């Protein structure tokens, strides 16, 4: 299995990188292909699936096929993203790569005021202007309802970066976690620096965005980083192996891990709803194009007309990343996780968004079909003999535990 870390080490010295990847080194390219991937370049090219040229897949009858967007298996090609291994086994991928320079010139722009930072995110990403020249990489981290840092990065040559004297090799084990470092610009003011491309692409790897803070609250302490920071991040396989039933229950009743794709026209409401339901910061924002592919859109419903960028076949959406411990849990107050998640899912359906399916879902099948269009998916399952060989998508991604029962058991604060 080729990982993001593997492909970065291979491509960057040759002057290339994947157009869309993920900031976690142990994530596999196949997992992203059958799930979903988004990064800070997605405002230019869309989701990971838009950069896949072909899939080589073993079907339910054992046959090997190569699916592209315009060959005889084009229907399969459009349904494989978000299918989570329910249509076949992936054995090969052909992906688009882009030419790069060895450094990213990164500008940090601290912003106060929700409307101001939401407007600037839309402006910098070209959400409503197809002709706007946008930066190579764009993201925002929201630290409270009224405070955010917008990050705008462009490829840069080595000689310019090295002459600047402002190189930050931020992936070194003793460096501050990236989101903690970015937060300092709220007080320091606007600034810029140069980051080696490999460091930038995996900037959230050591702290798994900010998830590790929930596991190791002192993990960003300078002494901890210096002496044992090289141990991070914990391996996903290790976390799964050591997750007991009790820990599994609390992973959704006492913590939140959600990535949701939502229209950028609703950015203010996204943040309001996330604060109302979970009240945990930071919140991650990645702008991303969502394309309307007509009849071959696959499981993703196309953007609504009022969400489209004028003169294009795409609308600007964004990843809303909410990770951490809800404030009610921190205060040892009653927190109904199931109710909170279901209300977030209802909001997502109402505005035409999509929940990343790596996380727990609390929808019944009818609600799931409202969020995702399974029309082509069901035809493809039958046509390519997936029925009986692979589970249905809904059965594959729904929680393996009774979340409604467990949720009731853990509503009240732990003693």
UniProtKB/TrEMBL annotation:
Gene3D superfamilies: 3.30.465.10. Keywords: Cholesterol metabolism, Endoplasmic reticulum, FAD, Flavoprotein, Golgi apparatus, Lipid biosynthesis, Lipid metabolism, Membrane, NADP, Oxidoreductase, Signal, Steroid metabolism, Sterol metabolism, Transmembrane, Transmembrane helix. Residues 2-67 form the FAD linked oxidase N-terminal domain. It is found in: Endoplasmic reticulum membrane; Golgi apparatus membrane. Its main location: endoplasmic reticulum. It catalyses: lanosterol + NADPH + H(+) = 24,25-dihydrolanosterol + NADP(+); 5alpha-cholest-8-en-3beta-ol + NADP(+) = zymosterol + NADPH + H(+). GO terms for molecular function: Delta24(24-1) sterol reductase activity; Delta24-sterol reductase activity; flavin adenine dinucleotide binding. Pfam families: FAD_binding_4 (PF01565). Its cofactor is FAD. Its EC number is 1.3.1.72. It is a single-pass membrane protein. The keyword Kinase does not apply. GO terms for cellular component: endoplasmic reticulum membrane; Golgi membrane. One of its GO terms (biological process) is cholesterol metabolic process. Catalyzes the reduction of the delta-24 double bond of sterol intermediates during cholesterol biosynthesis. In addition to its cholesterol-synthesizing activity, can protect cells from oxidative stress by reducing caspase 3 activity during apoptosis induced by oxidative stress. Also protects against amyloid-beta peptide-induced apoptosis. This is Delta(24)-sterol reductase.
């Amino acid at each position: 299995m080729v990982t993001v870390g593997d492909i970065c080490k291979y491509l960057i010295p040759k002057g290339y990188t994947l157009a869309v990847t993920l900031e976690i080194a142990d994530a596999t390219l196949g997992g992203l292909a059958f799930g979903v991937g988004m990064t800070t370049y997605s405002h230019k090219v869309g989701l990971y699936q838009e950069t896949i040229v072909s899939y080589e897949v073993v079907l339910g009858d054992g046959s090997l096929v190569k699916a592209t967007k315009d060959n005889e298996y084009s229907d399969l090609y459009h349904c494989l993203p978000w299918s989570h291994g329910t249509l076949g086994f992936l054995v090969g991928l052909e992906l688009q790569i882009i030419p790069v320079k060895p450094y990213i010139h990164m500008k940090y722009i601290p912003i106060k005021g929700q409307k101001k930072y939401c407007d600037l995110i839309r402006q910098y990403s070209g959400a409503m202007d197809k002709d706007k020249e946008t930066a190579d990489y764009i993201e925002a981290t929201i630290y409270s309802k009224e405070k955010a840092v917008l990050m705008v990065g462009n490829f840069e040559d080595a000689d310019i970066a090295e002459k600047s004297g402002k190189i930050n090799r931020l992936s070194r084990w003793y460096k501050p976690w990236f989101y903690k470092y970015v937060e300092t610009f709220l007080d320091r003011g606007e600034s810029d620096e140069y980051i080696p491309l490999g460091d930038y692409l995996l900037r959230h790897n050591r702290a798994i965005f900010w998830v590790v803070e929930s596991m190791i609250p002192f993990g960003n302490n300078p002494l901890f980083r210096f002496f044992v920071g090289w141990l991070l991040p914990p391996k996903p396989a290790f976390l799964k192996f050591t997750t007991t039933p009790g820990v599994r229950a609390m992973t959704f009743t006492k913590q939140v891990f959600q990535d949701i794709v939502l229209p950028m026209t609703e950015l203010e409401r996204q943040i309001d709803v996330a604060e109302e339901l979970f009240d945990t910061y930071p919140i991650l924002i990645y702008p991303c194009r969502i394309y309307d592919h007509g009849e071959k859109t696959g499981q993703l419903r196309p953007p609504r007309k009022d969400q489209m960028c004028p003169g294009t076949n795409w609308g600007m959406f964004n990843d809303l990343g909410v990770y951490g411990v809800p404030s009610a849990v921190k205060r040892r107050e009653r927190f109904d996780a199931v109710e909170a998640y279901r209300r977030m899912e209802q909001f997502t359906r109402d505005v035409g968004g999509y929940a990343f399916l790596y996380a727990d879902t609390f929808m019944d099948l009818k609600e799931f079909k409202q969020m995702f269009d399974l029309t082509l998916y069901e035809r493809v399952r039958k046509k390519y003999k997936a029925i009986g060989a692979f589970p249905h998508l809904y059965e594959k991604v729904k929680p393996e535990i009774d979340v409604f029962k467990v949720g009731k058991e853990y509503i009240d604060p732990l003693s």
